[in-house]
Amino acid sequence: MSYNTNPNSAETVAQSTDRLSTGVSGLDEILHGGFISERSYLLRGEPGTGKTILGLHYLTTGVVQGETALFINLEETTADIEQNAAALGFDLEDVHFLDLSPKSEFFAGEQGYDIFESSEVERDPIVARIAEQVSELQPDRVFVDPISQLRYLSTDEYQFRKQALSFMRLLSEQGATVLFTTQATDDAPDDDLQFMSDGSIDLGYASTGRSISVPKFRGSETEGGNHAMEITAGGLVVYPELTPGKQNQEFVAEPISSGVPEVDELLNGGLDRGTVTVISGPTGVGKTTTGTQFMKEAAGRGERSVMYLFEESEATFMQRSEAINIPVSEMRERGTLTVEEVEPLQVSPQEFAQMVRHQVEEEDADIVMIDGIAGYKLGLQGDEDELVTHLHALNRYLKNMGVTVILIDEVSNITGEFQATNVGISYLADNIVFLRHLELEGEMQKVIGVLKMRTSDFERTLRKFEITEHGITVGDPLIQVQGILSGTPQLTDNQDRDGLSE
Q1: What torsion do the CA atoms of 410, 380, 272, 320 make, to the nearest 10 degrees?
Q2: b/e per residue 247-276 (b: at least 16 CB within 10 A)
Q3: Helix/strand/coil (H/E/C) assignment for every residue in 295-357
Q4: CB atoms < 10 A from the CB of 168, how many?
Q5: What is d(CA 12, CA 235) in angstroms, rounded to the nearest whole number?
Q6: Nearest residue to 405 via CA among 311, 245, 278
Q7: Spatial CA neighbour of 480 closest among 467, 470, 489
Q8: What is the pLDDT of residue 267?
């Protein structure tokens, strides 16, 4: 499935300016291609947020591309950096180091003194070593960790600002693109460095877990918001915030059949492609089965579907579907169905959105089903209001891509007063299909109906709904039963009762 991006997409902007990859694809997407060459960027964040790891990505990516990379370490020793990098799988063999970290001799020797307070003694030799190394190597990429250590080699803030600006200018004149970290404290904030840099990247924490944002980036637009980030065994992984409207695809807004004629009659031909449908109802009424039925019919047309299970195990879903004549195993073997069980509290909304994007843009998914909304809220990291916002953005994206979306929503009332969907969900839907238990003269029955269709007319009657070993069976309109939605169903003519129980 191919898709189009707007003129401000990452690909378009990247082509207009010489860019250097950060080494993290998700961050490159946020920066519309990467860093602008020969500029300086500030990397901010508390200890442990991943600043040095991002620097390792940046340098090693340059080495792979045949560039010269220089790591100026002002605090941590080279041996410690190499050891920590190896644990994450980084190969630093071709990365050059200028180790300016404090040595034990400064404290143990006869002329022991505190390096951080002896600016007059240490500043000139350190500046000379930096200038010599930069002039000799002429690096393409430089990572300084942390530049704020130079503050202790300056007599006052004015001298530090002047020295930092001169340092950045020296590197820029040599054709280097610089990434530097800072250690901001209440006594020594990094506001001055933020002003001096061409851009800043903030690493931190949000309700959804680790986050990364780009509050400043001269010369280019970026993707705003707090994006999700994860530190893995292989380094950093960034999941950009999904922005509806940036991706779209032309598609035919045709109805897609369920394969059950009576359901299609209710829906005036089926669900329109590129719409969001909420299938709601209490537990055990057949919501997931109804959604899977659309996927079964799509597989017969050669279309591909993906289902995300938040409330049911994959094994249970597979076994239950096969028992009612929905051949999900065969569909998976043919490549027309993907089933993914989402582990609770292990995935951020941004990561989940990237999972869905991969299925749509790389695997050509035509139908996406989320089972179910309550599980989505519980299973993903973040507060409820934020998760609904992320779900709204995901649905907008899928609609723009012409994907048919099915959301399974469980309501609490098994019988009694009618409840269409959970609070805060119905506005997401173009279509609402509801299933309902009812008790009539001592017998439990199920009915199906349509409450809403934005793009077409629909049948406003209710029909009997059953799930058998042969699949879904739907009866004729129940014109002899009234009071179903009010929770007090009654037959208007007892002689027609057989029509409901057949």
Answers
A1: -60
A2: bbeebeeebbbbbbebbbbbbbbbbbbbbb
A3: HHHHHHCCCCEEEEECCCCHHHHHHHHHHCCCCHHHHHHCCCEEEEECCCCCECHHHHHHHHH
A4: 22
A5: 28
A6: 278
A7: 489
A8: 96
Task: Kindly report the pTM of this predicted structure.
Answer: 0.81
Amino acid at 361: E
Domains and CATH numbers, the chain: 4-239 (3.40.50.300), 247-501 (3.40.50.300)
Dist CA 178 CA 172 (whole Å): 8
pLDDT of residue 1: 39
Query: What secondary structure, in 3-state letters, does 379-410 show?
Result: HECCCHHHHHHHHHHHHHHHHHCCCEEEEEEE
**Measured between alpha carbons, how far is 183 from 148 in angstroms, rounded to an integer?**
6
pLDDT of residue 129: 85
* Two structure tokens written together for 395: 């649905």
User: Which helix (H) or strand (E) covers residue 25, if one does?
Assistant: helix 25-30
The count of other CB atoms within 10 Å of the CB of residue 309 is 21
- pLDDT value for 209: 86
Token pair for residue 179? 């990434």
Residues of the chain with pLDDT under 50: 1-16, 106-107, 110-121, 495-499, 501-502
